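=== Structure Prediction Worksheet ===
Name of assembly: unnamed complex
Input type: mixed (protein and possibly other molecules)
Chain count: three
Listed entries:
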Amino acid sequence: MKKLLHPKAAKSSRASNTPLLLIALPGIIYLLINNYAPMLGIFLAFKDYSLIKGPFGSDWCGFQNFEFLFKTKDAFIMTRNTILYNLAFIIIGTAVAIFVAILMCELGERKRVKFYQAAMLLPNLLSWVVIGFIAYAFLNADTGFINNSFLAWLGLDPVSWYSEPGAWPAILIIVNLWKNIGYQSIIFMASISGIDKSLYEAAAMDGAGKLRQIRAITLPLLKPTVIMLTLMSIGRIFYSDFGLFYQVPQNSGALFATTQTIDTYVYRGLMELNDVGMSAAAGLYQSIVGFILVLIANKIVRKVDADNALF
Amino acid sequence: MKNMKRVLAALAAAAIALGLTACGGGGETSGTGNGEGEYDQVVYAYATFNNIPATEDLAPVQEAINEITREKIGVEVTLMPISVADYTSKVSLSLQGGEKIDVYQSLGNFNSCVASDMCYDISELIDEYGAGAKEVVGDNFLDACRVNGALYGIPTYKPYALTPMLIYREDIAQELGLDIDSIQSVNDITPLLEQVKSAYPNMTPLAPVQSGTIGLHMCMGDVDWLSDDYYNPVGVLLDNNTTVTDLYTSDVFKERAQLARTWHENDLVMKDAATTTTTAAEAMASGNYFGYIAAYSYPEEDTAASLQAQCGNYDIAAKILDDAFLSTGDINAVSWMIASTTDVPEAALAFLDLTYTDEDIINLLIYGIEGRDYVLNEDGTVSYPEGEDSTTVPYTAQLSCGTLGNFFKMYPTEGTNPESLAWEEAQNKEAETSVAMGFTFDSSSLKTQYTAVKNVISQYLPGLLCGSLDPDTELEKFEQALMDAGYQDILDAKQEQLDAWLAQQ
Amino acid sequence: MLQSKAFDRFASIFLGCLVVITLLPIVLIVISSFTAEDALIQNGYSFWPQEWSLDAYYYMVKQGAVILRSYGVSIFVTVVGTLCSVLITTMLAYPMSRKSFKYRNVLSFFVFFTMLFNGGIVPAYIMWTQIFHIKNTIFALLIPNYLVNAFNVILVKNYYSNNVPDALLEAAQIDGASEMTIFRRIMLPLAVPAIATISLFTGLCYWNDWTNGLYYISNEKLYSIQMLLMNIMNNIQALRANSTASLLGTGAVDLPGTAIRMAMAVIGILPILLVYPFVQKHLVRGVVVGAVKG
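=== Predicted Assembly ===
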């Protein structure tokens, strides 16, 4: 920190840098305490943690804590699932959210639009536990709405959803969309409404239709937001929304082939073992891979379009 | 990039400073007894299945206990009731965070408590400070908490023996004239279920007992799970043999899986049994089910009587399907431990001892203050004050009755049959016990395999034992997946440790 | 013109359908909470149950005082937490958006990095309880985890970079305004749309949080409504969970039924439903202001 304020810096730049730094200071201090200080705990990933010996007295054990992440057959399945689901969420989620945002903006300021927004944001307010219950109300084999009312009405046989792994990629993507689309589309709506209206007027004068206007004006101007959001999602590509993958499938073992992700595997494994070192190892592994992916993605963005890079 | 490095270096320095203080601070807080002076302070953390009482409602209970403990053992106790759902994680987090907890319990996780160094070795102290508890529980059961010679806890004294039973609708059985007496084992149930199905096509004869099981795992004969359980990696001892066997390739497992499959295919059991969250009692209360299989500690009639209200007040009866069988895991599932971080092991153990021997303390813990939280009836049973129930009284931990100290010293609740208590205590003494009683398996060197095997098990086992998977094709896949996950390592390690243990006996 | 009208109609119909689909599941749990327990198990979940019942809500009313107090805790934490968070977040984001600020990239990286790495719960727990002693205080619900969120910081920063012309700042500097004045007088008012958005997100985080409570609160007077719900739901799960039920040895556990669980879910979201229209008005107005200024 001291070095940053070193007098060697040119006088003029210090004059404008110091006040700005002061404004940022509360946030910096908070992040230092809340986020950076506990990161020291990362060294626990290399310790054979013992309660009596304490965090510093415990024996070092090299990479032994990482073994359970790689040694078994599950490693491939959970890594594959985590990445594929995240990619699906990034691509489908962004596309649908932009689509919805454009339609919303198209309808302008009507009363209805406010209601639409409110309604679509509603699922985002629910916790995963509640959503798990809702999904169960729909999918339960004996009493669920889909089997009981919908499929029966169509004259189809009931499906035992919680033991049909094949159906779950679709179910999870739909549930995720349902929960998050309102939230994501608000961000895009804010960006769209920031676009200069005169651009559209000019385009309309030139005889450009709606679709053309969207293609030529809206989408290109949304690019910075899309890039930013995507970069951030890539950083978390090794994480999964624990609630979605644990609560919604009701922890059903039969579905592991398509619902197991790194987070659920770690949780299931460590729930009983209660091993500080192994959970630290899992967290470190996820962080490092995410970190490397973001650095790479950011570098690519910087090459193509420097203004939109994150840092 | 240069700037970034500098910032990171500064951050690291700041963070290290903070981190070091964090651990320095740990030591200071543990000496809590300051000022209060003459009495040792003991924190007693217990799981409650009831509501967490408010601080001011808890205080009188704590004070009443302290009045006894100050005089008897010179100790002051702080009660720390924790909701059962968070219990295990809160206790381990608190211990890791350097907070003061001196006495705590295991909830089915005795081995992991030992493996993560959470337990104080009380072998040296038990004769002086825990003699009463030792006598109550008995050396035989106390051995269940011994690992490699060290004594890490005291099992709760309660009815250990759980007898598998068929709980069923007596009214329907009567109406259809079902021959309940013909049931000698779980195999004999099938024709009865079929009879129910043909008389009531809309009914599902059998409900699952909990999510993921229809109770068949309780009916496999004399199985010693050797420190594991139904949901964990298992190499077991079957029929008191001392060879560690893979349960899933055994004949009895195959038979049960076939049976479940037959039931599933003939619609005799709930279709979603492997994943449902509906409990047996809920299902029964709906009137759509004929019965379920579960294990209880009461005799048949009392079990049925106690279940009636939960099951929608239908006529309920029970039929024993198999004998009770005791192994180490049944005993040490709920054990009381002294925390390895404690600074007052003697005082902690002395208080723990009272929860096994002192009637007043036990009943204060369970029922709270007489008059306020409960009334004592003339026949020695307990009920809630007029117009109150378990959710409205200021303090009660009544549902924790099987997990605190000595169950047989507690006042029975109203309507309990005194004979049934006697039956239970007799069952404890008479139930068949495993040859490996007292052996605990140390799995700490097999964490990777455990994690992987556990995953495979939860993938296949509920489906196989609820009938939604076909054993003819899936059993083989299951076995293969287990082997890929390192199952054999666990079996081998178990056999090795068991042999060593047997050699010592 | 014609195309525009057709597009407009398509947008209306499409969004209308989408909204119906979105709301149906929520309607289903609300209806389930008013369904008799037996009907739920016998006939399954349905939009038109065979038997209505208020039993679940009677059960909740019995717990009335506890529920009201935890509502109070939740509201306090959400309001105070969101205010503090918005202030610190915008203050942190502003320098990051200034092109002339020397440590701009470093700071951005510093913020972004927190999204990738975390030290896990044990070190954080030791720090908050042993150094800051926040256990069983209201600060435990306010401070850990939610005060500054990297995502929100970056959102505001981008909003500034995209919507505030450099010329405006230069003009203010020439007039002799200090950085703090610029922030207070120009940047804060300009950021209203972004602030509305992050307030909503932050408020939701605080409202829905139960993990801070789980780790740092054991005094039931400081229970938030989410903790209360989680606690009850967790207890149900623990009782169902495999081994615990048999530990009891006795079977006499009276679990809240399905309808009650649904009622709890409804009670958890009810205040949000009530407050939301008001918050939303600001949100929409904020977005409009942004549009006009942009």
